[in-house]
Every structure is written in structure tokens, then in C-alpha cells.
Write a structure and sequence with these properties.
Blueprint lengths: L4 H10 L4 E3 L6 E3 L1 H7 L19 H7 L4 E2 L11 E5 L4 H10 L5 E9 L4 E2 L4 E2 H11 L3 E6 L5 H9 L5 E5 L6 H18 L2 E3 L7 H10 L2 E8 L11 E2 L1 H6 L13 E7 L1
Parallel strand pairs: 4-5, 4-9, 5-8, 9-10
Antiparallel strand pairs: 1-2, 3-8, 6-7, 11-12, 11-13
Length: 267
């Protein structure tokens, strides 16, 4: 996918054009204007679909969507406060979910993924696997494909337009001040526009308490990616107390410095 198609689309749309030529393939690509003129989603997974891929079979959306869309059969209903959990598919996301699942209201998972590889960044988990996780939890999943030259927060704001009655944007950060600070700066204005809060349920929670939560949960965790040279070859290893306690002193037990990432599997 060409990195500059957003610019080409913007230029064509400003001129009222119904399509532009993709420089990578040479194909004609419908603009949002052209697609709106058709009146409904065609189900082809168009790059600029203004209908949130409504006619694409739910089972195929993870592989095909180019715009934010629901990746589960269920969607959140209006009239109930909704917590939107930024979901990576790993243990921290799941432990955060456990903390908020029993609270009043409803939970929606939001996952961003690379539009080309269809993988979750850092976790290296296919978006199709994350759709399976959401189905196992029986909660709605909003998929947001990421492309270059697109402002991240603007893309998230567009996706959140699909979610009714948002009360909180929820993140699974544990203790990294600079990461939390970035989120607070990046999403402050958006939260104000949506009249919702930023929530960090696991912030500074003791690791022992988190490990006990993980041990009680009906799920298992496996290493999905590593960046630390001492962990090379351990992708696929189960993450549990024994694994965490075996880690060298310079590796965070929960991989908070990016040393490793995990995938949750439900039993």
C-alpha cells in the first residue's frame, strides 16, 4: 500500500473527484465521495469506505477492513456508560479487563493494528487472533487499521464515533511515567470533547497482586515477541510465576520495558 495515498485521497476529495490513481498499483481507487455516491457498502473492503465496512462479513473483516469497524458480532448498545479498553491482546490488557469487567456499564475493546501486516505492533499478534479473544470474552471489539501519514489520535477519534456513551478511555499501563504522560497529553483534548475520563486501573498496582490475578484467571499467557537478547528463542513459552521469577535481574518481571510481550489464550 502506498504511503502517500492519504495525500492523494485528500487532493482528489478536495477536487470533488470520485477516484484517484494509486501510484503503487496503477489501479483506480474510489474516494469517500465516490463511495458515498453508491449509497451503501459494497462489501469489498474499500480503502476509504465511509460505511465502516458494514456489508463485509464479520468473519472476514479482520483480514479486509481499511477503516475502523466492528470485528465481532456484538456491538455496544446506547444508554449505558461504556468503558473503551485499549487492547493489545496480552496479559496487561487482560488483567486490566478483569479490573473493570464487573463495574457498572459495558466494556468495548479497541485494538489498533498495522493495515499491511494485519498484526498488533510490539505484541506481534494477528488481528484475527485478537478477534478470537474478544469472541471468547463475549465483548465488542473495534478494530482500527493504522497507516502511515495518518494522525493517530485523529484516527482513534474517528473510530470512537462508533461507540455510544463513552465514560472512560482505559489503558493497561503499570508504572512507566513517560508512557502514561504521553497518553495523558495525547488524549486530553479528545477526552474533553467526548466528556469522558482517562483511566489507568493497574497503575502502580503491586506485581504480586497482579500475578495472583493472573493465576486465578481462566486464561493462559504465552510469550509472543521478545526484544531482549537474553530471551531469544523463548517465543511460545508460557508466561507464569515460574517464568517471571526465573528472569535475570535486569529484565522486568512483567516486561514493562519492552523486553518481551505476551498473548492471552482462554481455556
Amino acid at each position: 500500500m502506498s504511503d502517500d495515498f492519504n495525500r492523494l485521497h485528500a487532493e482528489a476529495s478536495a477536487a470533488g473527484e470520485h477516484f484517484y490513481i494509486d501510484p503503487a498499483s496503477g489501479y483506480r481507487v474510489f474516494t469517500e465521495i465516490g463511495l458515498k455516491a453508491r449509497g451503501e457498502c459494497c462489501g469489498a473492503g474499500c480503502r476509504h469506505c465511509p460505511y465502516h465496512h458494514a456489508s463485509v462479513d464479520v468473519g472476514k473483516r479482520a483480514a479486509r477492513i481499511q477503516q475502523p469497524a466492528w470485528l465481532t458480532d456484538i456491538e455496544p448498545g446506547p444508554g449505558t456508560p461504556t468503558r473503551v479498553l485499549f487492547w493489545s491482546g496480552g496479559k496487561d490488557s487482560y488483567l486490566t479487563y478483569l479490573r473493570i469487567a464487573e463495574l457498572p456499564g459495558q466494556v468495548v475493546l479497541l485494538t489498533t493494528f498495522d493495515a499491511n501486516s494485519r498484526n498488533i505492533a510490539h505484541q506481534d499478534i494477528p488481528i484475527s487472533d485478537v478477534a478470537g479473544q474478544a469472541a471468547a470474552l463475549d465483548v465488542p471489539l473495534l478494530g482500527v487499521p493504522l497507516v502511515s501519514e495518518t494522525d493517530y489520535v485523529e484516527l482513534i477519534e474517528g473510530a470512537l464515533a462508533l461507540v455510544p456513551d463513552i465514560s472512560q478511555l482505559v489503558f493497561g499501563d503499570l508504572h512507566l511515567e513517560h508512557i502514561r504522560g504521553w497518553r495523558e497529553d495525547a488524549f486530553k483534548d479528545l477526552a474533553e470533547r467526548l466528556d469522558c475520563e482517562l483511566s489507568f486501573p493497574l497503575w502502580q498496582v503491586d506485581y504480586e497482586l497482579l500475578m495472583k490475578d493472573a493465576e486465578r484467571a481462566p486464561a493462559s499467557f504465552f510469550i509472543s515477541a521478545v526484544t531482549h537478547n537474553k530471551l531469544i528463542g523463548l517465543v511460545g513459552t508460557e508466561y507464569n510465576r515460574a517464568f517471571a521469577e526465573s528472569l535475570p535481574a535486569d529484565i522486568d518481571r512483567f516486561g514493562e520495558n519492552g523486553e518481551f510481550h505476551t498473548r492471552v489464550t482462554f481455556t
